[in-house]
């Protein structure tokens, strides 16, 4: 059974960098067939896709966040991470990591985000 | 960017009702659409991908249809466990979620 677990500081000061890690169990982030994804949800609002890293290390980011986001992986720890720089109060949200089942290089090979972490709340405040 | 617009934002229904949620894409996304259910304080749960393919373990009262720019999620015979918020999500160009539709008890 694949499980994902987010971890990281729950409070970040404005202008600093938000750093979160997603620990993966039951699957290898280095095996083909998955996009390791970050999504966030502002309080009382909808879901916002942040970006993903593929098994090969390729990254894709939401254009609206691209200048501030880095998603990286640590295969030795079987985890992947999110860094969001220059945060403001608008970055206060629940942050989820998820696995997108993606077995090729076209949308026809995508089977949705089938495994999610429980989410972690990050508040940006001084 | 592909924008996803869901309607209605809120839907009031009773147990046993048939409900339909609509999702419209700002451009042609083919069949590359997923639906998720989210309950308060929980992570979303995948229901449907490729517009109409039911994820394993999802009850058959859920169904999806559509292609191009118009999609729908239908729940036949609404059950108490189905009162939740539903999101569509396109994966044709990056990834974008709709704003969500809350199905509440009438």
| Approximate strand percentage of chain A | over 45%
Structural class of chain B: mainly beta
User: What integer value in Å does the Rg of chain A equal?
Assistant: 14 Å
Number of strands of chain B: 11
Low-confidence stretches of chain A: none
The DSSP helix count of chain B reads: 0
Number of discrete helical segments of chain A: 0
Q: What does the overall shape of chain B look like?
A: globular
The H/E string of chain A reads EEEEEEEEEEE
Q: Specify which chain pair forms the largest interface.
A: A-B, 24 and 26 residues
Q: Into which percent range does the helicity of residues of chain A fall?
A: under 10%
Please state the average pLDDT score of chain B: 97
Give the overall shape of chain A, derived from the CA principal axes. Answer: globular
Strand/helix succession of chain B: EEEEEEEEEEE
Write up what this structure looks like.
- The complex is a heterodimer of chains A (126) and B (106).
- Chain A is an all-beta fold.
- Chain A is 0% helix and 54% strand.
- In chain A, the strands form two sheets. In chain A, strands 2, 4, 5, 6, 9, 10 and 11 form a seven-stranded mixed β-sheet that branches. A four-stranded antiparallel β-sheet of chain A has the order 1-3-8-7, with no helix packed on it.
- Chain A is globular.
- Chain B is mostly beta strands and 106 residues long.
- In chain B, strand 7 and strand 8 form a beta hairpin.
- The radius of gyration of chain B is 13 Å and the shape is globular.
- The interface between A and B is medium-sized, with 24 and 26 residues.
Entry summary:
The complex is a heterodimer of chains A (126) and B (106). Chain A is an all-beta fold. Chain A has no helices and 11 strands.
